[in-house]
Predict the 3D structure of the following.
Amino acid sequence: MISDARSRFEAALAQQLPHETRNAARHYLAQEEEAGRWRVVARSVRALPEGGLGLKPVRVALLASFSIDFIADALLATGLAHGVRVIPYFSGFAQYSQELLNPESALYAFKPDVVILAIEGEQLLPRLYREGVLPPSGKLDSATTEPWVAEAMGVIDPLIAAFRRHSEALLLIHDLVPPCWPGLGILDGRQGPGEVEVIHAVHGALKRRAREQRGVHVVGYAALVARLGASQWYDQRMAHLAKAPIAARLLPHLAGEYVKYFRALVGLTRKCLVTDLDNTLWGGIIGEDGVQGIRLGADYPGSAYLAYQRALLQLHDRGILLAIASKNNLAEVETVFREHPAMLLRPDHFVRQEIHWQPKSLSLRAIAQGLDIGLEHMVFVDDNPAECAEVEAALPMVTVIPFPAARPEEAAAALFGPGWFDGLVLSVEDRDRADLYRQRDRAEALKAESGSLEGYLYGLEMRVEIVPVGAATLARAAQLTQKTNQFNLTTRRHSEEEVARRSADPDWLVRCVRVVDRFGDNGVVGLVMAQRLADGNTLEIETLLLSCRVIGRTIETAMLADLCQQAVAMKTGRILGRFIPTARNAPAQALFVEHGFTPLPVSGPEASSGESLWEWDLTTRGGIVTPPWITRSGVDHGRADQTTDGGFSQP
Amino acid sequence: MEEQIKQLMADFLNLDPLRIDDATAMESVEGWDSFNHLNLCLALEQEFGITLAVDEMEGMTSFYDICQIIQARL
């Protein structure tokens, strides 16, 4: 008995269709009545060859105070559905301390990209969970939270410190589920701090510690358990039988929580949400019901659509681009925006509006092109199953979220649940992204007005600051490596920790680029990382990238000019660079040719993948000149400054 | 019901569903270790919307026994 959803998944898998397989897996995994679905999908992941289905590999080590092995199927399956090939490592039961403290451990030999540290409250603070908060003697109100926080952090801190010495991976630490049945019952916290208050204090300390560290994140485990209900979450039978306390039925939710981090790590965070209007942004159909007739406001169902608008506004405020794809008459839509009193979203919140009667797949293509972002970074929300199917068939790389037409109150959860838009950092550039795109639109308009390219470039009045990556720009620099796809020579993704390590290394050059033009501050939009090789004479470009919003403005020439200056300061005589082609980085392909680099022969597997290697000999060629329309600005003491401005002392 | 059980056994124990019969038992199937056994039991619970007692899990050591135990619970 093979269900339709499973058959469709297996058919897509058999044809090795990357996007179709992921979409089919998502549909299949949503079939709650099929108990074997996680195992079926996980088995197909285990059978995949390296690089199969275009999944991005992420090496994940799981360390837990309980038996977490039962999550394996859900983790592999959810990973596939979201474009990630999870390569798991399970540490032995409750071996986390030994594994983290010993640099020779199997954990470090595994070379993880992500390490998950899942300690249940009962194991981290056994006395609290077993005996409660009452001090053995003395006054009832003499208890404080501090000793408990000190006890918990006394376990966690040495583990973080050791981990940071031995690995550059991302570290995810669970927070704690407060005791379900406090020993004092309703008196918990009445006279002195209670058990729940202690756990909240531990959370505060844990989060502060994570904020102080690079690449350490606190997984909102307690919030996840609360969403699903602690009485459902734990399976006491399995806790006693196999030291596996989490109910098997709910483990996929934990896997889903982890996959949000993996997706961000490999650059699959979605950037743009395209929404339908009728029966999505509001209830009813504007063409039939009129402005007075559509449902939107304080009462159900209007309140549910308003909640969806509020969710979109939250996404907008964290830098997700919003756009509209609607089959409608533009004039009627404009009336709603202008006249409906309950409309929360304004036309300004949308960077693109495709309102006409063409297929939605064309609208999505147009939006992606206009914004210069990949279709794989787009999410499409529509209540009409036919429109959803059309987009999914024509553009399988787009993430389609069907708007729950019969239950509009569930739309916000459908939008936020899988964390499509979750990244690892929120930068100033993110928050202002919609503004930045509007700036860019104005710059594009200027381009159209200016007769010549040169006139356009002068007209931009660009000031470019290229300085060492410092504490303030570190997170943004790592984010750029994770998210930049087009103008990116090598498309290598790096953690904050790795960028920080390089910044502190005298053989590495790590410089970021800020661009200000007459339309405003574009923020940090470029990054160069180069390494002085063992010969002492070669500076090799490991990463050179530019955010898509400033492509085509010759900023890369200024970056190469800066690189030449830095190379001289580092006493190297030549610059080496390589181009590794991907499906999306054609905009960076001609960089070396256009700047007169000399091609070098490439052999072996690199050659067959189209990789090219280039050289710039400083002794015979001298430097590269910054274009006259770009003003270099900002304090730049060059290389010598890097140890102070960009220096990162290990805690 | 038997078909559903066979399909889950096939998925969790790497068996051909057509070759599962009453005699298919833990001691003769290579992939039927304790970890896969627990995974199979938990999947059976979800498939049939039941919660098994530990005794029942421990008794499900063959296709025949699984069918008997599930049947008794439905």
About this structure: The mean pLDDT of chain A is 91. The first strand of chain A starts at residue 56 and ends at 64. The domain at 432-645 of chain A is CATH 3.40.630.30 (Aminopeptidase).
